[in-house]
Amino acid sequence: MSDNIEKNCATSAKKTSVIGILQPGYLPWLGFFEQLYRSDVFVIYDDVQYDRNGWRNRNRIKTANGMQWLTIPVHCKFEDHPLVSNIKIDNKTNWGKKHLLSLKINYSKSPFFSKYIDIFEDAYSRMWGNLIDINMHFILELSRCLGLSSKKIIRSSTLNITGEKTDRLIKICKMFSVDVFYEGSAGKNYIDENLFNSQGIRIEYQNYNHPVYKQLYGDFMPYLSVVDLLFNHGDESLSILTNKRSAEVSK
Fold first, then answer.
1. Alpha-carbon distance 180 to 186, whole Å?
2. Number of Cα atoms under 13 Å in the Cβ half of residue 212
């Protein structure tokens, strides 16, 4: 929710209800959780077409040698136009062991490594079949670590809503009787605001001011998985990612 939403919430006699609708990601970045924080209802948009080279099965961490991708291998035939919710993980290799080892090697010296590493040891000890299942597991676990466990998180595939693009989004908004659709900045390229306005729904676009915080390994690197922030700042992470406080950064 932007400053405009917060102002409207404070001045309106009726509390403004805000919805976020976002595709799932693997170990999502800070902006994902900022949208969750600002929303009263948060819909994981998992019954849409799986995208090539997107964030559904991969994310980035920081290492002594720069940025490193953590990627879950998947079975996917794009010509079949598979939905996010139907993507199967390719378990021929022990990718989970590799991801856990990468976290241990690169974050073992971070201040809050011992506080969170058990979450990853548990998750990577399991055999996951569908990509959506491990993504949802981590979204819920990381939300809990950030103090967002009370948020209402729902998968769109459970809502049985049909329609195309904007029409579906409007139907989801109306299902939850919200006033504001808090959309990512990329939505400006394809959202028809007039259609939302005609239904009494205002769109607010995320304009995320990425915080700078203390990391390992030299100069600050933005747009990483939220695990980087958690390992480095622990219980302060939510205040930092929502820009409610500044983190002390060593030069």
1. 17
2. 7
C-beta atoms surrounding 122 within 10 Å: 11
Alpha helix (H) ranges present in the chain?
3-11, 30-38, 95-107, 113-124, 131-145, 165-175, 193-198, 226-233, 237-241
**Does 251 fall in a domain?**
no
Work out how many domains the chain is built from and give that number.
1
Give the whole-angstrom CA distance, residue 193 versus residue 187.
10
Assigned domain for 27 exists: yes
Domain extent for 210: 3-241
Residue type, 129: G
Residue 246 falls within a domain, yes or no?
A: no
- Ramachandran bin of 43, using left for φ above 0, alpha for ψ from -120 to 50, beta for the remaining angles: beta
Per-residue pLDDT tens over the stretch 122-171: 999 999 999 999 999 999 999 999 999 999 999 999 999 998 889 999 99
